[in-house]
Hints:
Layout lengths: L2 H6 L4 E6 L3 E7 L5 E8 L3 E3 L2 E3 L2 H23 L8 E6 L5 E3 L18 H11 L8 H10 L10 E3 L1 H10 L6 H4 L5 E2 L4 E2 L1 H6 L4 E7 L27 H9 L7 E7 L4
Parallel strand pairs: 1-6, 11-12
Antiparallel strand pairs: 1-2, 2-3, 4-5, 7-8, 9-10
Amino acid sequence: MDTKKQIEEGKAVLGIEFGSTRIKAVLIDENHHPIASGDHEWENRLENGIWTYSLDDIWQGLRDSYQKLAFNVEETYGVTLKKIGAIGFSAMMHGYMAFDKNGELLVPFRTWRNGITGEASEALTEAFQYNIPQRWSIAHLYQAILNGEDHVKDIEFFTTLAGYIHWKLSGEKVLGIGEAAGMFPIDSTIMDFDQKMLDQFGRKIEYMRISLTNNCNLRCSYCMPICKEEMPEVTEFGGEHKAACWLHHPMAPKVEMPNLEGGEL
Length: 265
């Protein structure tokens, strides 16, 4: 199939890359060959000691690069670009974009270029025994916590530039595994954030089952070991009162939905 027909039938694929100095839109054919492009030059600026781009910068740059690509398509192939087969975004990794529950940006976008998270980087590297560079998103978040920044209490979620663009265009708050690896360490065995390190950083526990006795005959696999040892002698954990005291202890994990259980004795 010739290039013009692929474009007319919406089979070409659009990729947009947000680099540090240029936003580039590229259209490729079914054989992964570039067939048209457009770009927009931009540069982060220092505002109040923070290297940043504004949200207007992001969307103006996206529109301009796409408009130039569409013009390139029409000029080269004599057709108007109306439909594409797929779209993909990539952007400079790392950085920090924090949003509240209404989806409003709480502080200006902090790019990877900022070297203001030295204290957090050192503390996390020591805690995890894993190198956490200053540019990583988790270093930015932890530095904001250490600084006592007012916006931290209002954070609903935080993401990277690529994650932000994907969210706004698709409605989904997701990241590719490569992008996520610049936010927080990845466990390669599960291809997800390292759960042990999350626990060390104070992972939020939403649901927890607490047995009020050690002699529960339900033997649920998530609670009991695989081996079928004899049922132990019935002893009381302490009942509801001790469980409630434990959940309210300052050192206990913050559990949103505790469920007290005891089996069918």
